[in-house]
Amino acid sequence: MTKAPPLNMDGLEGVSVECQKSHQIFMKDLHSFKYWALQMYDATAKLPSGFLNGNIVQFGDFDLCMKSKNVAHNIYGQYCLANIQVEVPSSPYLAALYNLVHSHALLRSKLTDSSHRIPRFSSIQWAICVPHTCSPEDVDIAVKYELKHIFNGTEVQYNTLINSDLCSSAKPEVWPTTTILGW
Questions:
Q1: SS3 state at 90
Q2: H or E element in which residue 86 lies
Q3: How many distinct helices (H) and strands (E) make up the chain?
Q4: Cα–Cα distance between 102 and 107 in angstroms, integer?
Q5: Is 0.85 surpassed by the pTM of this model?
Q6: Residue 137 to residue 139: CA distance in whole angstroms
Q7: At 12, is the secondary structure helix, strand, or coil?
Q8: Rounded Cα distance, 74 and 60, in Å
Q9: DSSP classification of residue 68
Q10: Among the four residues 11, 67, 160, 181, which has the most C-beta atoms within 10 Å?
Q11: Is 116 exposed, middle or buried, given 0-12, 13-18 or 19+ CB atoms closer than 10 A?
Q12: What is the pLDDT of residues 57-90, one digit of tens each?
């Protein structure tokens, strides 16, 4: 798992205790090759081929994420689509790479554009499958942490957005009896 490690949620300042506990169980079970944890890991997008040619939207496997669950620990898969906006670097070399990754700026969009603009051509979209106990804010903290290490020592600047509307959980909803009877 060292070539494409799972998103780290453990020990990060600002990440909820519930998220960290579920993530620790996930990591333990992943290293033991438990099926539910392998599903969650497999459902998360990995670095694809063609990234330098603009292949920057990676949806992972939504259905597989929704199937991943550890009922004994009450952990269910949650699929979140992270949006990452990379700013044009001032270095000519990095600017050339940026230009390749963004298909020579054929169409442009920003994180702040309304979400009805589909597809978003300029932002990187990356699917992440995490325990349902992790909020979009928890996921955002973890994504920023990973990007900080990826771009360490470079001039690359970025912004992230994990919109709660783009997170879906497989955790069964519990409805009050009055809601069920009134329906």
A1: coil
A2: strand 75-86
A3: 6, 6
A4: 9
A5: no
A6: 5
A7: coil
A8: 23
A9: -
A10: 160
A11: exposed
A12: 899 999 999 999 999 999 999 999 999 987 766 6
